[in-house]
Amino acid sequence: MKTGETRVETRVVDAAFVAGAVDSASLPPPTLVEVAFAGRSNVGKSTLLNAMMERRGLARTSNTPGCTRQLNMFEVRCNDGLHLRFADLPGYGWAKRSKAERSQWQEMIEGYLKGRAGLKAVVVLVDVRRGVEEEERQLVDFLRQPRDVSGKVAVILVATKVDKLVTARRKPALEKVKNAAGGPVVGFSGVTAEGREELWARIRAAL
Ligand code: GDP
């Protein structure tokens, strides 16, 4: 596919908000495969989620009052029968902290990532212009450690807002993110929908 070309193949026939969990007890039972999305505030996570789900405004921006410290869960059904959940993990400090400094919230998110049955992939978002910083590096390291339950969790790295770079600067910027992460990266734009099908393909491969 040429850069900037928009291709929509994965059609979402149904997408709905199912839960805003503040602790592990308020998570819905793990009856479906799940994909979590993580990234610092303003990286473009809500925009990407809405593009993936083809629902404008379903995932709300992280500065929506009252939505900051919730794990928002969405149920998504595609036209080919694929049925899964998306877990929106709002941006938070992934940096290492002592046990005493860890909030109940962090315990919940880390417990989710380490122990959730059905969690198949975590999409880690970075702004293509900022690249991978210490916080994302720590998150990726955390995700590569052994889990408390069986089953691998794929880490899918996405560089957002690629439309903000002129075409000539995109490839080197993506290459830089790829080298910093030590693996492939999907370039994504919420403006052109570039990268949407590639991300769907990576998610499918992880399920
Ligand atoms: P979140 O805080 O990670 O959920 O980020 P949002 O999705 O709310 O996006 C933050 C800001 O970046 C908003 O002003 C968006 O319009 C803008 N934005 C998000 N994605 C893109 C993108 O792919 N391209 C451009 N140009 N702007 C984007």
What name does CATH use for the topology? Rossmann fold
Fraction of helical residues:
25-40%
* Fourth-tier CATH superfamily name: P-loop containing nucleotide triphosphate hydrolases
Largest sheet: 7 strands, mixed
- What string, H for helix and E for strand, traces the elements in order? EEHEEHEHEHEH
Tally the helices: what do you get? 5
CATH class: Alpha Beta
Please mark out the parts with pLDDT under 50 across 5 or more consecutive residues, or reply none.
Answer: none
So what's the overall shape? globular
**Spatial strand order of the main sheet:** 1-3-4-2-5-6-7
Estimate the mean pLDDT confidence: 88
SSE-based structural type: alpha/beta
Beta-strand content: 15-25%
Termini separation comes to: 24 Å
Task: Give the domain tally.
Answer: 1
